[in-house]
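Researcher: Good morning. I'm working through a list of sequences from a screen, and I'd like to move beyond sequence-only analysis. For each chain I'm collecting a predicted structure so we can compare shapes side by side. This is the next one on the list. No need for commentary yet; just the structure.
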Amino acid sequence: MIDMRGRWRPALAVLSAAALLMSGCAKSEDDNAGSASTANASAAAQATKSADAAGATCTLQQYGGTKVDLKTAAIGFSQSEKEANPFRIAETQSIKDEAGKLGIPAGNLKTTNADSKFDKQITDVSTLIDQGVQLLIIAPLNSDGWDSVFAKANAKHIPIVTIDRKINAKSCTNYLTFIGSDFAEQGKRAADKMAKALNNTGTVSILLGAPGNNVTTLRTSGFKDELAKVAPGIKIVFEQTGNFSREDGQKTAEQLLQANPNVNGIYAENDEMALGAITALKGASKKAGDVKIVTIDGTKGAVQGIVDGWIYSVIESNPRFGPLAFSTATKFFNGEAIPENIIIQDREYDTTNASSDLGLAY
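Model: Good morning. Structure tokens for this chain:
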């Protein structure tokens, strides 16, 4: 009988080498994908624009609290709106992800969602206090009406970090700090983009955000003030709330198109309303680019809208508050002075970077 083992050895050696090569390639591709994902996450993270170092600050001693180890503390996070909006989804996930990275047990992070009902948010936060949380992170629905929460939290010396929207109250007394964007500056940047889109002349309609908070107020005043300054030839012919909602944004845009069918531009105070406006424009037989849309947020849907030609520019409002919220709380409990306002940097998207930076959107 002929021994075939010797004949197979060269073939087996070749197959083994090929397998090793393929394994190495697969690992390299996985590593590259992981590196790209990490790079995107790092680039997309919030960065501080200013911490108002010359302004009011607050220390643990001033606040009257006691030092807390976040890894063993009970922490409450109050979300204001339904997590159907990409901003809220990313915001809540950022808080949860950072808590996990810090080693905070999942059971120690207590989260609530007010479903866009202010009375429910007040009840939610009150319940969190009753449950013994030692730190509160709040994304407020409204800027006013928090007195009962302040009284209850202050009695137990529970620091409150507000994110995204600011509460009209006294820092270091009612709350610790506000972390968020410069909303007036966002409005100004949107006006500059609209002026460029329309060559400083034409008509514009505004889809206002929900009433009762400083985001809508400042994005509106910032836009109007800057537009009057840089492009007095552009007239605002319509403004009505779309409640930061895609559905309401579409309905409001349909109304503005009926009243002003030849409008040249739409300023939407968030991306969801802008995407609703696109649906309304399509229903009115408008083509991509017929009406210049400038919006604020930085969702993937809106940035893709630039690629598709429907949106002219997007001013970012970064929702990834987790790292900054927890690092601020850590510094506070370690005795460092915390500024009253911590303002983050926001990028912007247009045709020059929408395709390449789509991975940075949320």
